[in-house]
Amino acid sequence: MTSTEGSRRGPRVPGWLVAVAGVVAAVLGVLLLLDPFRSLAVLVAAVVLALVLLGVGDLAAAARADGSRLRWLTGAVWLAAALAVLVWPGITIRVLAAVAGLAAVLAGARRLAAGIRGTDEQRVTAVLLGAAGVAAGGVLLAWPDITVFVVAVACGVTLVVQGATHAWNAGQPRTRPATRTRARRFARTGGAVAAVLVVALLVSLSVVLHRARPSPDAFYTPPAAVPGAPGQLLRSEPFTRGMPADAHAWRILYTTTRDDGVSAVASGLVLVGKDAPAGPRPVIAWAHGTTGYAEQCAPTVLDDPLGAGAMPALGDVVVQGWVLVATDYVGLGTAGPHPYLVGQAEGRSVLDAVRAARQLGGVSLSDQTVVWGHSQGGHAALWTGIIQPTYAPDVPLLGVAALAPATDLPALVGHLDSLSIGSLFAAYVVQAYSQVYPDVRFDDVVRPGARVQVREMADRCLSEPKVVVSVLQALMFRQTILARGVLQGPFAQRLAQNVPTGPISEPVLIGQGEADPLILPAMQQAYVAARCADGWPIDYRTYPGRDHGGVVADGSPLVPELVRWTEDRFAARPAASTCAAR
Questions:
Q1: Strand order in the sheet with 233-238
Q2: Phi and psi (nearest 5°) for 481?
Q3: How far apart are CA 253 and CA 249, in angstroms?
């Protein structure tokens, strides 16, 4: 080799250094793929190592091969990007996604260019890997908030493929492609095909998840001038999506009140059977179960507005000629925060929806109102009964039916760790309480390694396809999302503050499935016993073999019993109480 050639190729990078870097990168990539939710710190380390690997690989290739300026340039860019990520204060998942995406696109483009100029065998491998890199980078750049899962998988795949490639190449003699063995060529091409398949799956999944994401339309944006009084109808329009063919329905936008007394706007749904008798009709105020925390999780935004919140006995409501008034709650559909399991705010949304529905043309509501609610909605229904005498005396209630209600909130949150997907519901609670209460700080409640994942979980609705990523995250968490000792601080105090302890003077029906893994029967039994001791008129019914959703599903014995119990309330028949028997 002449001095000119040596100058052109530049200083050599030791093969053993490249090999060690490749092995370490591949091992970290495997660990990242197996446990992508360990922590943001691990993900940052993976991105840094991936960038360093790209940089060292390009510099090594430039030194060992033709010394092209492109390889020297890209190698320097990768190392500079790695340094930037490493020293960036307060690194976020969006920054990581942008850096990783740019790196993947540039690396893929370089491979594509190299493939076009190379031999047949080089061309196939380089083009496949280049296409995979460009596609993966495009996903990360197009959707920087696509989830930590995608960033982790992209980095994991990059580390495994690049690390293994560099480790292999570092141990091979510097010979031209023609002297490579057939097995080696097959392995390289096979690895490239596998990388393409993984990225193709990732791209397809990303496209499907993002296209299926619900989004509130202009209906949920309030007008410029909003009345300060709660329960004022701002807007209404006919609504047909997911509605029974034998009913008329409207979605409504109305005013309500947050816990701090500040006016807010909420949306909801009003439905009545087409054959309902003329004149004022009895009202079922429906408080839906958990659909999510984010704005796009409003039932009236989702594909199945009533099914999403586990509405029971819809056909009976239509046949009976009752008017259904179903709130979305403030912060779902409309501007947040959504007061998830914050009792008084939920109850105000229910009561103000009834007030607003009275102003709707095309349907006439009587003063007879019974509240139904399931899960989160059961919690809301109980709080509706508690605050009604003082907040909305103009909406008298004849009864409150709470079905599998969330009642003992401190015990419930403490129990979520034992459930396979309990962290998903915990994420909703944490995000809501940290937004609603100034003394509940998100970073104090959530352990550092889970903060990114918790924020992402809270942004997904239970019924949207993206929730599958939340489920994967919940299943793969190795420990609680909550910080140590959090159930003794302000967070615990606020949870206790939102236990619906009363009083309620109207008849109360509480239905509980005996196979419910979320709201434990023993927990509910203790709550009912305490309320009976407080003098509540409770009819407590349990249902063997029924779990949390099954207790209100079609075929559950609770459903016809709920309808009969409601008929009795509208007919002013005496209500039974099971408190004396407990």
A1: 233-238, 247-257, 263-273, 323-327, 281-287, 365-374, 399-403, 508-513, 538-543
A2: -85, -15
A3: 14
